[in-house]
Write a structure and sequence with these properties.
Blueprint lengths: L7 E2 L4 E6 L2 E6 L1 H7 L2 E5 L6 E2 L4 E7 L3 E5 L4 E6 L2 H4 L3 H4 L8 E4 L12 H8 L1
Antiparallel strand pairs: 1-2, 2-3, 3-9, 4-6, 5-8, 6-7, 8-9
Length: 125
């Protein structure tokens, strides 16, 4: 299972990559593996400002639908348009091309509440 050290993680299996005052968010390799083949990603929150742990979209796999939760407060600046036509990219490259949203960082103190790679490894066993 791939858990990059340069990312932060949530207990709900989202990852976040910080780039200055913005961040990219997606689901972890563990999450995509548990969901199975992803067939649809629905994110209609572009331009909205959301609180930490608020739902920013959903991902649909063959067997289930799962909500996606914001790891931090901020505005959804961009949605990965590639996922509309190729949702399977989330399975193939969850930490790269399979990112879901780009957000502004509303409160950088919230980053301290996220898990580092070691803590996330412990969570998923």
């Amino acid at each position: 299972m791939n858990i990059p050290d340069n990312l932060k993680y949530t207990k709900d299996h989202e990852w976040i990559r910080i780039e200055g005052n913005e961040a990219y968010v997606g689901i972890t390799d563990f999450a995509q593996g548990e969901l199975g083949d992803i067939v649809f990603v629905e994110i209609e929150t572009e331009g909205e400002t959301l609180d930490r742990e608020e739902v920013f979209g959903s991902v649909e796999a063959v067997k289930t639908v799962s909500d996606l939760f914001m790891p931090i407060s901020g505005e959804v600046l961009e949605v990965n348009s590639q996922l509309e036509s190729s949702p399977e990219v989330v399975n193939q490259d969850p930490y790269g091309d399979g990112w879901m949203v780009k957000v502004s960082i509303g409160n950088s103190d919230e980053l301290n509440d996220l898990l580092d790679a070691a803590a996330y490894r412990e969570l998923v066993g």
